[in-house]
Design goal:
By secondary structure, the chain is of the alpha/beta class. The chain contains 25 helices and 26 strands. The chain starts with a helix and ends in a 13-residue tail after the last strand. The structure holds ligand MGD (2 copies), iron/sulfur cluster and molybdenum atom (MO).
């Protein structure tokens, strides 16, 4: 392995590192936005501030959109009273303005047509026609198959609007990549261990921690705002940071310990840490005695899982494992074992997350300052409406008893239920899609395509001509977040709070807010009582008044903080506390896992290794982009136009690859990337792996900037390691090799 010294020099040059190193002022990167360049910060006073919260990612930072007298949005800045951002937006949030100005936006409703010769195309349509078409299809599906057969793929606010429509109509057949392709394993593990989920924003008390442990969490590149700010604070306060990552991430560059683990072996490391804490008696005895269940069984379970045992599996030396375990114990309980977020890696992910939860409990690092705090949210009063009808079957029934600990719909199961050939008992016949670009976020492209081609009808609500719109029968162009009212934001936090989003400008082109679109469809379905308002501001005002505020007040403040009601942020020492688990304790031994037929304690199992001449594909984030949704955003495109494939110098030598050389990637199943990608030769990646930033390689030509820029990691993910606990789509068991020549001229565009 390479020495750390080699790497520091490199990392201090990286943008991510610069951002993390301090100077948060750099975050207000407006300078890179053409629209922002023209105004100095002192002229903000002449502009009108309109409250909003960001939709560029799901941290939902609250801010102010500054508008001039012509009605143009000139700048977005963070709201100082917002705990999600503390007055500072990340580069993407500032660049969110580009979503509004992007001239490639969807501009009008579109309907798929077929020419006599069979070729298909989209024609512009009126809203009346497009909405009629969706409503009529919903009626038809309900009559023919029952409302349950209408499925929904959703993410973020647009997804939530569609979910309200779907539930009013009588279906709960929905799923989102943000569960089964993202946070699902974490939910299953923390819920069964602690009886509560980890929330979003994560309830990690990083700002007051003495030791932050990042296991495949690349905070700093993963640019979730206040989390990055708090990590920066922790660095300033000299907290110990332990980063476990096969790649020298930005976070690794700021860490006291970087453990360049052999990919897919994290469970072994975690179990060895647990072994050391128990057998060296470093764990928090009073905490474990008072609050946990199954300690003696755990002690026995990890008896042979020594650091020496883990060394052979992980490549991490026993002394390093002991030293880092001692560092955690020394800082306990002010330790954050970060639960991660994108946790679908190798198919045993709920078990890896369980190991992290167990480690957390042994350190007593729960409910204490500097560990995981106890979050609280404002409950938004429900606007009067009838109860949603109870569907005859829902997302859970689709799974037919598989994945017993899934708490939300599973994307791959919804796809499979859409394919008649697979004979699912409950079949899905039509889809609504909102705020999710499935062709780039679903692994196993073949499965997605077959499902999309099998269903009778797809309606997509989006702001951009993303790949998913190519599969639609009807495209509903939504106004961007800067042009609409939306739900009140009320995420759990240290301090309960509410944030408001309202239009800073009129919707451009012939676009409409999501709330309006679903209301029009709902009215056509005779569901008026679920949409009993003319404008969404009425709903917000009603809710705010119930909370002792109002639309008028929120227009002035954007974010309102409320006193906590559920008790303090931290547990008092020795306080009695009933956990919401079957034993009422923190379950080191998981009764739920055991009852569902899974190992009650995590067990390390080896995963497939790259075949000869292949390298494991790992992927992640870049600070200036969010998934595939920002690659065409003019402001953010300016900051980063394409991704690259990170290749270790040894591998580059072996293959004769030069910096910047374009290569196509081919995976173990023979899948080849549509577009080539530039090689980045760097010591920051292990020799057995390559790394790519997700979200590039767009194949829809209507994305004039993003089309063909970089390659899509999704195309290389044909093998899914399914998590039997909750149906997660483990995506890191794919291996690539390099092709120097354009492999196929017969490759077709990803368009229906
Ligand atoms: N290969 C691969 N797959 C992945 C990941 C990965 O790293 N690699 N990451 C996984 C993770 S962690 C997650 S959370 C999921 C996320 O995957 P998705 O749920 O697909 O999320 P996004 O990419 O954010 O969704 C983008 C879509 O929302 C649209 N959109 C943006 N704003 C609006 C709006 O205001 N209104 C409407 N109607 N539409 C809007 C965009 O134009 C775009 O079509 O992907 C998962 N899949
Ligand atoms: N800028 C930006 N920030 C984002 C997002 C975005 O799109 N853009 N998306 C947000 C969302 S929804 C999510 S879910 C998060 C995802 O962000 P995180 O949850 O932090 O990270 P992942 O994408 O899971 O993991 C990426 C890291 O895992 C490392 N890794 C790969 N294989 C292994 C392994 O076997 N073991 C270990 N220990 N490490 C490994 C990679 O090298 C990489 O550094 O980011 C969030 N923040
Ligand atoms: S972290 Fe950045 S992109 Fe995400 S909501 Fe906040 S400002 Fe927007
Ligand atoms: Mo995610």
């Amino acid at each position: 392995m390479h020495t750390r010294r080699n790497f520091i020099r490199i990392s201090s040059l990286g943008l991510g590192a610069t951002v993390l190193a301090g100077s948060m002022a750099k975050w207000v990167v407006g300078a890179n936005s053409p629209k922002n360049i023209s105004i100095g910060s002192n002229s903000l006073a002449s502009l009108k501030p309109v409250p909003t919260y960001c939709e560029v990612c799901f941290w939902k930072c609250a801010g102010w959109a500054y508008v001039d007298e012509k009605g143009d949005i000139l700048k977005i800045v963070g709201n100082k009273n917002d705990p999600h951002c503390n007055g500072r937006l990340c580069p993407r949030g500032t660049g969110g303005i580009g979503m509004y100005y992007d001239e490639d936006r969807l501009k009008t409703p579109l309907i798929r047509e077929k020419k006599k010769d069979g070729t298909q195309y989209f024609r512009e349509a009126s809203w009346e026609e497009a909405l009629d078409k969706v409503a009529n299809k919903m009626k038809e599906v309900k009559e023919k198959y029952g409302s349950e057969a209408f499925g929904l793929f959703n993410h973020g606010n647009p997804g939530a609007s569609l979910e309200h429509l779907l539930r009013s109509y009588g279906s709960e057949s929905n799923a989102e990549p943000a569960f089964a392709n993202c946070r699902g394993p974490r939910s299953a593990a923390y819920f069964t261990t602690f009886g509560t989920d980890i929330v979003s924003p994560e309830n990690t008390d990083i700002r007051d921690t003495e030791c932050l442990v990042l296991i495949g969490s690349h905070i700093g590149e993963n640019m979730h705002n206040s989390q990055v700010q708090e990590m920066s604070e922790a660095i300033d306060k000299k907290a110990i940071i332990i980063t476990v990552d096969p790649r020298f991430s930005t976070a690794a560059g700021h860490s006291s310990f970087w453990l360049p683990i052999k990919p897919s072996t994290d469970i072994a490391l975690l179990m060895a840490w647990i072994h050391v804490l128990i057998y060296d008696e470093l764990y928090n005895k009073p905490f474990v005695e008072k609050y946990t269940f199954g300690f003696d069984l755990l002690k026995n379970h990890v008896k042979s899982m020594t650091p020496e045992w883990a060394y052979g599996i992980t490549d991490i030396e026993p002394e390093v494992i002991r030293k880092t375990a001692r560092a955690m114990a020394g800082a306990a309980p002010a330790v954050v074992i970060h639960p991660g977020r994108h946790t679908v890696w190798y198919g045993d992910d709920s078990q890896r997350e369980r190991a992290m939860a167990i480690l957390t409990a042994l350190l007593g690092a729960w409910g204490k300052r500097g560990s995981l705090y106890l979050p609280e949210a404002i409950k938004i009063p429900e606007f009067p409406q009838p109860k949603y009808p109870t569907p005859k079957w829902n997302w859970k029934d689709i799974n037919e008893g598989k994945f017993p600990l899934a708490s939300m719909g599973i994307t791959t199961e919804l796809l499979k239920a859409s394919i008649p050939r697979l004979n699912y008992k409950h079949q899905v016949k039509a889809w609504l899609v909102g705020g999710t670009n499935l062709p780039l976020s679903m692994p196993d492209k073949k499965l997605f395509k077959e499902a999309a081609e099998s269903v009778e009808f797809i309606a997509v609500m989006d702001t951009m001509p993303m790949e998913i719109t190519g599969y639609a029968d009807v495209i509903l162009p939504e106004a961007t977040y800067l042009e609409r009212y939306d739900f009140l934001r009320a995420a759990p936090a240290r301090v309960p709070n509410v944030a408001m989003r309202m239009p800073a400008a009129q919707p451009k082109y012939d676009t409409k807010p999501g709330w309006w679109i679903v209301k029009q469809i709902g009215e056509r379905l005779g569901l008026h009582d679920y949409f009993n308002y003319n404008d969404y501001s009425e709903v917000i005002d009603w809710q705010l008044k119930k909370l002792g505020s109002s639309l008028e007040e929120m227009k002035k403040i954007g974010v309102k903080l409320f006193p906590r009601k559920d008790g303090p942020l931290y547990l008092a020492d020795g306080e009695d506390f009933q956990f919401n688990t079957s034993t009422g304790k923190i379950e080191l031994y998981s009764v739920d896992f055991a009852n569902a037929g899974f190992d009650p304690f995590p067990v390390y199992t080896p995963h497939p290794e790259p075949p000869q001449n292949f390298y494991r594909l790992i992927y992640g984030r870049a600070p200036m982009h969010t998934f595939s949704r920002t690659s065409n955003n003019p402001n953010l495109w300016d900051l980063m136009k394409e991704n690259s494939v990170w290749v270790n110098p040894k591998v580059a030598d072996l293959w004769g690859l030069k910096k910047g050389q374009k290569v196509w990637l081919k995976n173990q199943d023979g899948a080849v990337t549509t577009f080539p990608v530039a090689v980045r030769v760097t010591e920051r990646i292990r020799w057995d792996s390559v790394y790519m930033v997700h979200g590039f390689g767009h194949s829809d030509k209507k994305l004039t900037r993003a089309f063909g820029m970089g390659a899509s990691d999704e195309e290389m993910i044909t093998n899914i390691a399914v998590d039997p606990v909750m149906g997660g789509t483990g995506m890191r068991g794919n291996f690539i090799t390099f092709l120097k020549e354009n492999p196929a001229s017969d490759k077709k565009e990803d368009k229906a």
